Amino acid sequence: MSVLRAGNSLLLLIMMMMMMFGPSLSAPRSFSIDYKNDCFRKDGEEFRYISGGIHYYRIPRVYWKDRLLKMYMAGLNAVQTYIPWNFHEESPGQYNFNGDRDLSHFVQVAQDVGLLVILRVGPYICTEWDMGGLPAWLLKKKDIVLRTSDPDYIAAVDRWMGKLLPLMKPFLYQNGGPIISVQVENEYGSYYACDFNYLRHLTKLFRFHLGNEVVLFSTDGNGVSYLKCGTIQELYATVDFGPGANVTASFEAQRYAEPHGPLVNSEFYTGWLDHWGSPHSVIATAQVVKYLNQILATGANVNMYMFIGGTTFGFWNGANTPYAPQPTSYDFNAPLSEAGDLTDKYYAIREVISMYRKIPDGPIPPTTPKYAYGAVKMRKLQTILDTVEILSVSGPVKSMYPLTFLDLHQAFGFVLYRTTLPVACNTSTPLSSPLNGVHDRAYVSIDGVAVGILERNKVLSINVTGKAGSQLDVLVENLGRINYGKDINDFKGLVTNLTLGKNILTGWTMYSLSIDDAIKQGLIQEKEPTLSPPPPPAALSLPAFYRGSFIIPDGVPDLPQDTYIKLPKWRKGQIWINDFNLGRYWPDRGPQVTLFVPASLLSTAAPNNVTVLELEGDPCSSGPCTVEFTDTPILNATVPAHYKQRWGLFTREDLLD
Questions:
Q1: Nearest partner of 496 among 538, 544, 438, 418, judged by Cα
Q2: 325 in Cβ contact with 481 (< 8 Å)
Q3: How far is Cα of residue 127 from the mean position of the Cα atoms in its chain?
Q4: CA pair distance 621, 232, nearest whole angstrom
Q5: pTM of the model as a whole
Q6: Comparing C-alpha atoms, which of 348, 260, 341, 274 is closest to residue 304?
Q7: Residue 425 CA to chain centroid, in angstroms?
């Protein structure tokens, strides 16, 4: 009896200690690769993830939980996100992890919802984001060699990872968090450098900050040619491919690098990216579910890229080569729309997943309602030329030859270049960028009259007239840095000289324009009216600001709601809603016509301000001067016939030329 009582006392003591100290006495959490049985193991049990891509930086913070819950209810047990370095360190040493940049909060919300997290840390991430996530300020050292062992690049990477990785370490799975694996670099086998010392350095850096238990992996295309330069022994090699690929052959390519271990498709494409001037990309639901089923039937792990695309707000979009920038919408034809709406593709994918794992019980969060607030009358404020002294906080900079954006300490937006005509041009004389040095689009005026547009790769010369000494203004727009391939060191502005006839133009005065700040401070005002009649409509007008406001109606429940803004008969420009830089519009080129406006940007307590910078020509002199808020997105408008799509789905080789 005494032995029995002693045994009961010991059991009681253990139970009390477990209650007091909880998980500290339980078996340690673990996530690892089982090479013998070709699988992952989570807490010792065989595990397979079915994941979806979501970019926290493309979705307002207030909607993170809604989107993650919808992903969980589709049957996913993990989510995957990139981390854009430039989004968190816009200036060297100045880190921002607040608000919509609060990465720790995003990871915590994912865990609260019941999802594991796969982090794709970079430092390079591609993701159709400016410069593939690398900060533009790296290019201040003009001969820096990105994504290599270049000492200046490595020093910057080390500092950034020294900030980021310790922030993420508490969220690793073995530390009680949801992060099961971390990607080092991204699709490095598609980059020309093939610098194995660089990959080894990154791996040691990640191990130093995160420890030896975390699963580190690489991702490359589904061919041996990609894997040769994208993988090293210390990283677990995974592949990416979409519908239409040979599933068996694709995983055989992974087996080239990893003879044993789990099969992983890190990017199974549910849709594809868009470019201005190309048709909206659509992949049929039937194709997606057919190939998803094939992947899951092999027992492989899969991440669907994207499960929700979201929106590339502000100036953050990237571009591909030959130079073609991406639009504001990153809808991606994904299972959840740009606005988080449930689609037929969502339900079809959910049905396939239900064949392989139990779908969670309970209701799916509904599609968020949309509201058409209607037309908003806009009034013209001032032109860029009227406000240049206000917009250029740093003041004018003079130089014999034009300087780049970064020479002027500016990363995004616009710079105004000003000089005078050195000779009289009584007849049409070519104003040219003979070395294709306009990066990326330049709005040209002489003595305050718009005369034409120069555009990278497309329009290298326009004909102008003017007197000797006439003021020449060239407003240059950065349309987004190249995010993929060998040309990611993409300098902006007038990166080479302009010529007038045979004369190289010199004697430039340049103004960096801080438009975001000026709008937030209310510095752009309505121009004093003139007594003279308005000029007749012109084919091209000076870039100018317009403003309007609207009030959320009373008596309608649950407002404000999400909406979309469209600009009938406006041509190209930028939109701010209540001082938030919503993004670019370019209906003249398409395919995107509407821009998504999250309800979180709107107010029921005060009028909502809409500011538009129209760069080419407003409709105000010939018709209604309005923008319109609608409840229906338009992302697939017909594009002009002379703009042809250069890219096929899932073919990246053309981008490597």
A1: 438
A2: no
A3: 6
A4: 62
A5: 0.93
A6: 348
A7: 44
Paired with 441 in beta bridges are: 455, 477
Query: Concatenated DSSP letters for 315-328?
Result: T-B-EETTTEE--S
What b/e string do you get for 104-133 counting C-beta neighbours within 10 Å, with b at 16 or more?
ebbbbbbbebebbbbbbbbbbbbbbbbbbb
Which SS3 state, helix, strand or coil, does residue 311 take?
Answer: strand
Q: How far apart are CA 282 and CA 243, in angstroms?
A: 12
User: Residue 568's closest CA among 549, 589, 594, 546?
Assistant: 594
> How far, in Å, CA of 231 to CA of 244, rounded?
25
Q: Compute the radius of gyration of the chain from its Cα atoms.
A: 27
Given pLDDT bands bounded at 50, 70 and 90, which one contains residue 8? low
Express each pLDDT in 517-570 by its tens digit.
999 999 998 876 554 555 555 689 999 999 999 999 888 888 999 999 999 999
Q: What are phi and psi of 463, to 5 degrees?
A: -95, 135
DSSP 91: B
Question: What pLDDT digit, counting tens, does each position of 250-288 carry?
Answer: 999 999 999 999 999 999 999 999 999 999 999 999 999
Are 73 and 347 in contact, with CB atoms under 8 Å apart?
no
**Extended strands (E) in 535-620:** 544-550, 563-566, 573-577, 580-585, 595-597, 608-614
> Which contacts (CB < 8 Å, 24+ apart) does range 606-609 have?
607/549, 607/550, 607/551, 608/549, 608/550, 608/551, 608/552, 608/577, 608/578, 609/547, 609/548, 609/549, 609/576, 609/577, 609/578, 609/579
Number of H helices, E strands in the chain: 12, 34
The CB-side HSE value for 202 (13 A sphere, CA atoms) comes to 30
Over residues 24-35, the mean pLDDT reads: 85
Q: What is the DSSP string of 575-599?
A: EEETTEEEEEE-TTT-S---EEE-G
- Neighbour tally for 532: CB within 10 Å: 6
User: How many angstroms separate the Cα of 260 from the Cα of each of 33, 35, 212, 247?
Assistant: 10, 5, 20, 17
User: Are 611 and 387 in contact, with CB atoms under 8 Å apart?
Assistant: no
Conformational region of residue 357, where left means phi above 0, alpha means psi within -120 to 50, and beta covers everything else: beta
CB 339 within 8 A of CB 66: no
Question: Chain centroid to CA 169: how far?
Answer: 25
Distance of alpha carbon 488 from alpha carbon 470, whole angstroms: 37
Say how many C-beta atoms besides its own lie within 10 A of residue 7's C-beta.
Answer: 10
Instruction: Return the closest-CA partner of residue 650 out of 286, 298, 288, 229.
Output: 288
> Six-digit token pair at 400?
């014999």
Nearest one of 220, 335, 241, 249 to 291, comparing CA atoms: 241
- Residue 358: pLDDT above 80? yes
Q: Give the per-residue pLDDT at 642.
A: 52
Instruction: Write out pLDDT tens, residues 414-448.
Output: 999 999 999 999 999 999 999 999 999 999 999 99
User: How far, in Å, CA of 309 to CA of 515, rounded?
Assistant: 27
- The one-letter code for the residue type at 259 is P
DSSP H helical ranges for 169-308: 196-210, 224-230, 247-257, 285-297
Task: Tell me which residue of 609, 627, 615, 613 sits closest to 569, measured CA to CA.
Answer: 627
**What is the rounded CA–CA span in Å between residue 302 and residue 49?**
7
Helix (H) or strand (E) holding 162: helix 151-168
Kindly state the average pLDDT of the residues 41-53: 98
Catalogue the active-site residues: 187, 267
Strand partners, 324: 320
